[in-house]
């Protein structure tokens, strides 16, 4: 478990993450859009995704992705950053995230 | 839309089924067990899956699979039969169901 920069929010350990968690986390087009943008452009702060949803809704989506083991969040200055855990997840569920993202928006 | 033997319950058309529907339907180990048994042994009636859950719970799971486009149900005599729609789904979401089932129980 990393210390320091992950301390602000809790993240499930890889061995705690179930298939169900991953599927629930990805069963939403806004959340898949977040994952795609992180894949394409790397880590970025919550406020910079340019998605047409309210801040509170977006906050809910980031939380769902975090609880589902899809992203890690860490604080950098005043910004909450997001980074993908898909390399980690691929060890446990090879190809799952890619298959879901390939299935459509 | 087939007539007759599908008439007892409603099923979404293929073009109505979303990625989210499929993921929600498969985000449960009992529902994945139902799909696996249908894949392995073909169509079978609701009461013959041998799963350790209450009849009302099982009924909920069949409904979730039906609404998510994973199975079709039809009545045969007094039995409600279940058949997979995964060939159909694969045309719309190639490899998605297989990837989810491969990810774990």
From TrEMBL, chains A, B:
Database matches in Pfam families: HTH_20 (PF12840)
SMART domains in the record: HTH_ARSR
Cross-referenced SUPFAM superfamilies: Winged helix' DNA-binding domain
Keywords: DNA-binding
Database matches in InterPro entries: ArsR-like_HTH, HTH_ArsR_DNA-bd_dom, WH-like_DNA-bd_sf, WH_DNA-bd_sf
Location of the HTH arsR-type domain: 11-104
GO MF annotation: an example: DNA binding
Protein name as catalogued: DNA-binding transcriptional regulator, ArsR family
């Amino acid at each position: 478990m990393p210390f320091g920069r992950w301390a602000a929010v809790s993240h499930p350990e890889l061995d705690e993450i179930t298939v169900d968690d991953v599927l629930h986390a990805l069963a939403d087009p806004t959340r898949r859009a977040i994952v795609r943008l992180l894949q394409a452009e790397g880590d970025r702060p919550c406020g910079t995704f340019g998605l047409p949803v309210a801040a509170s809704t977006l906050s809910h989506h980031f939380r769902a992705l975090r609880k589902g083991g899809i992203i890690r969040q860490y604080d950098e200055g005043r910004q909450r950053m997001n980074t993908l855990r898909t390399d980690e997840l691929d060890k446990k569920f090879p190809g799952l995230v890619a298959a879901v993202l390939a299935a459509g928006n």
